[in-house]
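Handout, page 2. Input:
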Amino acid sequence: MAETRRKHQTSTNQLLRTKLAPPRLPSALVSRPSLLARLDAGTATKLTLISAPGGYGKTTLVAQWLATRREPAAWVALDPSDDDPVRFWTYVITACRAFDPGLGKSALADLRTSKTPSFEPLLTTFINELAALPAPGILVIEDYHVITSSQIHASVAFLLDHLPDTLHLVLMTRSEPPLGLARWRARNQVVEINAADLQFSREETRTFLEQILRVSLKPETVARLDAQTDGWAAGLRLIALALEGKRDPSAIEQFLASRSASGGGHRHVIEYLTTEVLAAQSEALQEFLLQTSILNRLTASLCDAVTNRNDSASLLAQLEHANLFLLPLGEPEWYRYHALFAEAMRHTAREHFGAESMRALYARASAWYEQHGLLDQAIETAIAAQQFSRAAALIERSLDRRRQPEFYTFRLWVEQLSQEVFGAHPTLCFEYALALLFTSDRYAASTAAQLETPLRVAEETWRREDNSAGLGQVLALRALSALWQSDFARAFTLARESLQLLPEDDVFWRGSDLIIVGIDESLAGRMETAQNALI
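Output:
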């Protein structure tokens, strides 16, 4: 069994660099000077909040704006796996090193080495370093709506409260974040752009469509499209894709009439029009789109692995040229689909392929990720493929390489494993108990009771294996839990029993036990013995 202090190891080279750069601007781009001016004005405040449903062009607008600015910019594109405080701040601080390569070194070290990092002291150090920057910078956080962790929200609010003049924060989200923004609004420290602001005007609708279709549209046709989409960029792009190749005004009007009959809101529109767009593609391209829709980010070799093809590079180039909702990322030869388009594609893929074939796609993706050292992505796709035994083995490997206690992410993974698989991995059982302790109310009796089920499984297995080091860790964790339950007599007894079993090089758990023993000795008035225990 790997030593506990070697667990949770990861470094910034395990981060997906494609999440740390804005997408490249599309060829069809509508100039929006009034919105760019509002973004310019926002730099005099703490925060620019861009809040609108998917498909309104938030990302394109901010990428377009950054291209006009001279300040250095840091970009973080979030996804649901970032709803873990350690992972979130690792990405954000790493992104900010675009301002200065040495920035955040201490904060990142704390995130890597501490089992329970305290975010306010960590962020205080980071904020002080930001304040010392010689020139201002812009931090963009995309898709903040995927964050649900109250600890992340609290720490972002702390950053906002103490944001230095050298940093301006831009948050893109589909819903207003719970960051206590009222006081900043009252102080005019927030510039807000919402869905109504992002809607294309009729003239912008005309410009956008004519750029893509390369044909002049009648005013009444533009007016009809504008009324049908309410200036929704994603709907307009899908309509344009469905109209591609049609140059006869009567054919366009006929399509629009059929579109009107479909009715429904944005979700219905995107499902309907995606079907239209898919039908217009070759059979090979349709298959490629559906198979690769499972991927958050795409590159040719990954797509080849998932689709069992060898021409993904040319297909990706074809999709990019066709503006088919494929966004090129800052990293060369990496892309991602527009979120709404990918969602609709995945829905269609599930209906088209069936559950077994979808699991096979995820399994091939997982194998590629593993081969390329991207264990987090390998784990998540193995779970999606329902390869639970393989996922468990990958999670154990990730523990050996990881110093960062991404307890929320770890819990999410483990809680998706089948009980049978979970029980066959005592290390995961022990680490799960540890994660429960540090992500729950450690003072609650219910938390202590919850730890016992996974701890008993680990204990029974390690007892059969005569693994004294593992048994010592189980006792040490129980001692720590008992201490927080104020069950001091039990904590002191368990800590002493644990020390008899733990190897000398298990610094973390021996240290935990010695602190508890030191408390016992000091309470008994044996100060010299207590001091010796704590040295």
